[in-house]
Protein 1
Amino acid sequence: MDFFSQQEKAKRYTKILLLYFLIAVTFIVVAVNVVIYYFFIFLEFYPYTPQDWFSSSMVFYVSITTCFLILSGSLFRWFKLKSGGQAVALMVGAKKIDLHTSDIKQRQLINVVEEMSIASGVPVPELYLLERESGINAFVAGYLPTEAVMVVTAGAVENFTREELQGVVAHEYSHILNGDMQINIHLLSMLAGILMISSVGHLLMNSDNHLVRNRNFSALMVLGFLLSLIGYIGVLSGRLIKAAVSRQREYLADAAAVQFTRNPGGIASALNKIRNVKAGSRLNNIYSEDLSHMFFAQSLKMKLTSWLATHPSLILRIKRIDPGFVARIKARKLNVKNKETNSQKNMGELNELVSSIDSIVSFPENMESVPAIVTAHEFAESAGNISQAHMEFATVVHQSFSFELMQAVHKVESAKMLVLNLILVRMNIDSGFEFLKKHLNKNELNVLKKFNSEIKRLENYKRLPLLELLLPTLKLMTDSEKTDYLILCEKFIKSDGRYTLFEFVFLSLLKQHLAFESGKEITVKHHSYKQVNKELQLLFSIMSHSSRSLSELRHESYNKVVKYFPMSTLDKTSGELFNLLDFKEITPKKISAALKALAQLSPLLKRGVIEASADIAMHDGQLKYTEAELLRVIADILGCPLPPLLPQAVN
C-alpha cells in the first residue's frame, strides 16, 4: 500500500465530495422551487406560469433560503463534530472502555489494538463500546490519527475470536492510514445539510393543528409532506454519494487488512460470522443511517443493495479476500463426521488462505524472510505498510512487558510516572531524582522508583512502543492536568542543563498528542518545497547534527541531500545559501515552528522529506536506534506514522 498516494487521493476525494454535494444541493433547490410554486398556485397567491416564476425575484429568495437551511445543517453538524472522533463516539451513545477492565473479551480487544499500534506506528485510538448493540460492527472516526477513536459494538466484542478481531482491527487501521476518516467525517457534515429540508417538512407536518383548522393548515400539511418527499431526494442523494465513495475503499481496507495480518482467514471468518448471526451487522441506533458509510459492514437493512449500499455484499467481500473460503466452510459441514478428512483439510488450510489472496495483494514470495530496511527510500515507503514480521514483533514486544507494568500503563497516575522514567533513563539519574523529589509527592516518587529499574532494563527498541501505549491513558487527564504535566516534563528535560534533540522531539510528540490543539485537522498549505526552504534547512541540519559523525561527514551528508533535493539553494530575500546551520542556531522554538510548517505539506511531498531525512541519518551506512526513533517521531509529527524498524534492520 502506498501510504502517501492514498493520503493524496483522500485529499482529492474531499474535493469530489464537495462536487457531489453541490450537485445534490442544485437538485434540491430546483425541487423546492417547484414545490413552493405549486403551493402558491394552490393558495392562489401566484397566478403565473412556471416560466414567470423562474424569472422572478421569488426564485432568488426561495433558493437563498434553501441554501441557507442546507448550509446551516452542515455547519451545525460540523461544529458539533469539530472536536473529532470523540464527538462522533459520544453522539452515537458509545461508552469509553476502561483500559483497566477485567472483562476478558474487552481485554482481548485492548491487547489486539495495542499490538496493531506497535506494529503500525499509529497512535493507539481511544476505545468505545456500543453496549446495547447486538449487531456485529465497528468503525473509526477522527480528523487525525492522534485523536482517532475506535467504536465497537457489544456483538463484535462478544462474538469475535482473537483472529477475527485482529482482521477487523487491521481493516479499521487501514482506514486511519488511508485518510478515510477525514473523508467520512466531512461526508457526515455535508449530508446533515442535505437532510435539513426533510426536517423542515416533518416540522410543518407536525405543527400544532389546534391553532389553525382551515384550508391554510391543510396547505401547510401538504407543503410539509412535499418537502419531506424532497428530503427523501436528499436521503437518496446521500446514499448514492456514500455508495460512490465507500465501496471501493472498503475493498482496499479489506486487502490492506490481509496484507497487515498475512491471514485472510481472520477477516473472512469475521465477515462470515456476520452472515450467520441473526442480528448481522445491523444497528438499532438513530445515527445508523448517518454513519452507515463509516462502519465495518452494512449497518442498515437495504433492499436496493446493488446500487445504494455503502458496502459490497458480505459474500462478495469474502470471495474477493479468499475465493475458496465459502467452499471450505460448506465442505466442513458436509464432512463434519469425518474427523480424519477435516484434520487433513485443516493441515493445508494456511497455504490455501495465503495463495488465494494473491489476486488482490502481492506479497513477498518468501514470507519467512522480511527484508531489512536499509535504504532511505525503503524507510519512507514503510509508512502504512505493516508486514507479518511487524505484527509478530509487536506481539513479542507487547507480551514482554510485565503484567505489573501493563497495569501501570493503564492508570493515569502511574502512566505519568512511566513517562518521566523514560526521560530519566536518558539523563543523569542522580540530578534527575533531585529534581523530581522537589516536584512529586511521596506516592508518585514510590511509583517512579518501583518501575525505574524495569524501564532501565528495557531494550532501546521497546521504549518508543511503550510511550505509544502510554499516550491513550495520558489523554484521560483534564485539559488543565495535561497542561501542567507538559510543563513539568519540559522543566524536567531542561533540568540537567542539556536539551538534546531527541528530548525536544520526545516532548514535541507528547505535545502532539496532549496539547489543546492536538485534535485539529491539518490543512495542506504548501504544494512546493520552495515554500518551506528554511524549514527544510532546519530539519536537515537537525538530522545532520543528530549523527555522532565528524563535522566533515555532517557537512558532506547535508550537502549531498540539499544538492539533489528539489528545493532552492539560495534565499532570494537575504541572498544567503541554505548551508548547514550551526547547532547553536537551532532552538526549540525554531524546531517547533519548522515541524508545524512541514506538517502542512501535501502528502506526496512529505514522502521526499522523510526519505531525505533518513538519507542523512544513514549516510554512514548505519542506522542507530536513537536515529530510528528520532525519524519515527518526526514522521509522526508530520502525520506519517511509520512502523517500527525491526531489530535486524538497525545497527
Note: The radius of gyration is 28 Å.
Protein 2
Amino acid sequence: MADTVRRIVLDKAGLELQIIGFGNKTTTKLNFVIHDTSSDIVAIADKFSQYEWVKKERYDTLRIRNEMKEVVRRGFELHRFELYRLGVEM
C-alpha cells in the first residue's frame, strides 16, 4: 500500500493532516472536508471511511470556532501550494 504514512497534529484544533506517499507521489489531505461554502451554512465532515466522508456536521459560519477557521485556511493554503508545486492549474 503506502510507502509512508505521516500524521501531523495541528495543535490548535486537534485535527490531523495526513501525508501519504505512493512510490514517488505524495498526497496531502486534511482529515476533514467542507462540502458547501456557497451559503452561510457549511457542512464539514471529519471522518473518512471506505472512500467516503462520513460524520458530517452542519455549521453556521459564525459558529465555527476561530481555531477551526484557521485550520481550514491553512489547509486551503497548503492545497494550493501542493497544486502549484505539482504544476496543476486550478
Note: Confidence is low (pLDDT under 50) at residues 1-15, 33-38.
Protein 3
Amino acid sequence: MRHILPLVLICAIAGLSSCKKDKDDPDVTPGDSVEVYAGVYDATTFFHQVFSPPGTFTIQWDSVNLYGHATDSLDINGDGVIDLRFELSVLNNDSLHLLNGSTPNPYPYFYVEVADGWSVAAYQASYPTGLGHTSTATFASPLEYNDRIDTHSLWKDKTANPIKLWQLNPNNGMTPPFGDWYDAKGVAYLGLVKSGMGFGWLKIDVSDTNAPILLESAIAN
C-alpha cells in the first residue's frame, strides 16, 4: 500500500513559514456593486453547482513509486469550456529511501491554472533572500466561509499560471513560505472572478492536504 508523504515528515524536510499580504487593485468590472461572499449564493443571480461525484485526484505514480502526480479540471460557469485546471504533486512515504539523502525534485505542490478571462483571489508573501534583501511569492488565498470576495485586494489571471495554492521547498531560511492553503484544514474557498460575468467561489475540502476534494462552486451571472 502506498502512503503519501504525511505532514509531519514533510515538515522534517522543510519547516513552516509565515506570510504577509500585500495589496493591489483587482482588474475587474463585472458585478463591482454586488457583494459576494464565500460559500453564499443567490439561485436567481448565480450559476451554482454541487459536483456529484466530488472532484478527487487520482494519483499516478512513477515507475519506482516515489513521485505521484494528478490533475483535475472544472467548468465553473457551465458553458462547456474548462475554466480551472488543477495539478497536484506528492511523494510516497514508502519510497523515500530512494532519495538517497537528496532533496525531492520536484517538491510536492498544488497548483491551479486559470483560463482566459478568469482570475483567482491571491496574496503575496515576503521572505528573506540574504544580505538584507527580500523577495515575494504569490499564492492563491484560502478564504473562509462568508469572507467577502468582491472587495479582495489582489487578483491573478492566466499571466500568473500556474498559480500556487501551496508548494514545499527546502526551507533553508531564504526560501518562500509554503502558502496558506498548506495549513488550511477542513473546508476553504478559492475566490474567483470571470470577466463579463462576476465574482464567485470554489469550495475545496483540504482536510487531507495531499488529497483535496473539489465540492461546489458558484459564479455570478
Note: Residues 7-12+21-220 form one domain.
